[in-house]
């Protein structure tokens, strides 16, 4: 009797072990196919995102003969850097890059400071008209800037503050083709994407505990001391996010640069006139050759941004996760 019970127990144990092994095998197969689907989706998505850059790199080293060869796709048979050299010379790359990066850094620093200051005020001070003013800030995000293009241009074409400048000098100032229009707009919180940056800082500061400020006030700290030495250090992730966005958007900006500073030599503006320069100065009439050279110019333009992102991607992703963009 005992032997029968032991045999039954062994048989039951073996059947249970067999069921567990079958379940493990099924789970392994499911996980394998799930991971395979995820990998396929990631590869497909990565190709869609990277394909424009792959195309730019291919065009930059593609000679015209290989471009017309129907048997060649993406990888040139006789690669050379002639397209890059032509674009490099035509857009005066070193000088234009220095001007674009220098101005973008100045705008970046101004926007980070001004927008954080305004965002802190909206988040922490309950003054009359707070919600109305913040609604107007949100409105600057929603309304396309092209709708106010003409008023902006005429305002800075004949810039005058309550008639004071005309009273002193006899005529208003013409600020077109100078950096002052965009600098003034940035300082007053109306720069490129300033509404979005103010929103980011407001959301971030609203998420910080008020006990930080209460403790500072108890210790005798004033409003400005609290802002600069307590709140700003805690807002480093948002500051990094805003600074990177401001740098990239200003560096790539064509609208304001063409409207106010067309002759200042920005890379983004020079790219828009590259086709006409190739036709007028180098007598290049072939539209496909022009396309290859323009692709080379675009690659040269985005290269500094790619390098910056490679070095700062860790801080950028941390700022995205901790800032008010997803709040």
Question: Layout of SSEs?
Answer:
Elements: H1 2-60, H2 64-67, H3 82-90, H4 93-124, H5 130-142, H6 149-157, H7 164-169, H8 180-187, H9 194-207, H10 211-218, H11 223-234, H12 236-252, H13 255-260, H14 267-272, H15 274-281, H16 287-322
Please describe what this structure looks like.
The N and C termini lie far apart (70 Å). The chain is flat and about 70 Å long. The protein has 2 domains: 59 residues; 240 residues, MetI-like (MetI-like fold), CATH 1.10.3720.10. The mean pLDDT is 84. The protein has 16 helices and no strands. 24% of the residues are buried. It is mostly helical.
Mean pLDDT: 84
> Shape, please?
flat
N-to-C series of helices and strands: HHHHHHHHHHHHHHHH
The main sheet comes to:
none
Instruction: Specify the oligomeric state.
Output: single chain
Structural class: mainly alpha
- Unreliable stretches covering 5 or more consecutive residues: none
Number of domains: 2
Number of helices: 16
Alpha-carbon distance between the two ends? 70 Å
CATH architecture of the largest domain: Orthogonal Bundle
Q: Radius of gyration from the CA trace? A: 30 Å
CATH class of the largest domain: Mainly Alpha
Counted beta strands = 0
What is the percent of helical residues? over 70%
The CATH topology annotation of the largest domain reads as MetI-like fold
Strand coverage percent: under 5%
CATH superfamily of the largest domain: MetI-like
């Amino acid at each position: 009797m005992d032997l029968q019970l032991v045999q039954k127990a062994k048989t039951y144990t073996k059947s249970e072990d067999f069921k567990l092994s079958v379940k493990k095998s099924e789970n392994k197969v499911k996980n394998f196919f799930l991971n395979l689907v995820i990998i396929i989706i990631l590869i497909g998505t990565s190709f869609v995102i990277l394909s424009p850059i792959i195309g730019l790199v291919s065009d930059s080293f593609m000679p015209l003969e290989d471009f017309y060869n129907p048997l060649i796709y993406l990888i040139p048979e006789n690669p050379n850097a002639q397209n890059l050299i032509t674009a490099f010379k035509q857009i005066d790359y070193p000088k234009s890059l220095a001007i674009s990066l220098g101005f973008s850094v100045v705008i970046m620093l101004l926007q980070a400071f001004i927008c954080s200051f305004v965002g802190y005020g909206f988040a922490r001070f309950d003054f009359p008209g707070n919600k109305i003013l913040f609604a107007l800030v949100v409105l600057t995000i929603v309304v396309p800037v092209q709708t106010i293009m003409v008023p902006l241009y005429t305002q800075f074409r004949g810039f005058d503050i309550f008639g004071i400048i005309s009273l002193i000098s006899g005529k208003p100032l013409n600020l077109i083709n100078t950096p002052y229009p965009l600098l003034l707009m940035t300082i007053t919180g109306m720069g490129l994407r300033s509404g979005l940056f103010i929103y980011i800082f407001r959301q971030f500061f609203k998420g910080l505990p008020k006990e930080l400020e209460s403790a500072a006030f108890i210790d005798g700290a004033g409003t400005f001391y609290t802002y600069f030495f307590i709140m700003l250090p805690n807002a480093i992730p948002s500051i990094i996010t805003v600074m990177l966005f401001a740098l990239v958007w200003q560096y790539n900006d064509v609208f304001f640069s063409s409207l106010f500073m067309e002759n200042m030599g920005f890379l983004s503006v020079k790219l828009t006139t590259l086709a006409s320069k190739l036709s007028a100065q180098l007598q290049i009439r072939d539209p496909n050759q022009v396309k290859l050279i323009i692709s080379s110019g675009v690659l040269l333009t985005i290269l500094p941004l790619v390098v910056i992102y490679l070095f700062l991607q860790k801080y950028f992703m941390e700022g995205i996760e901790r800032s008010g963009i997803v709040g």
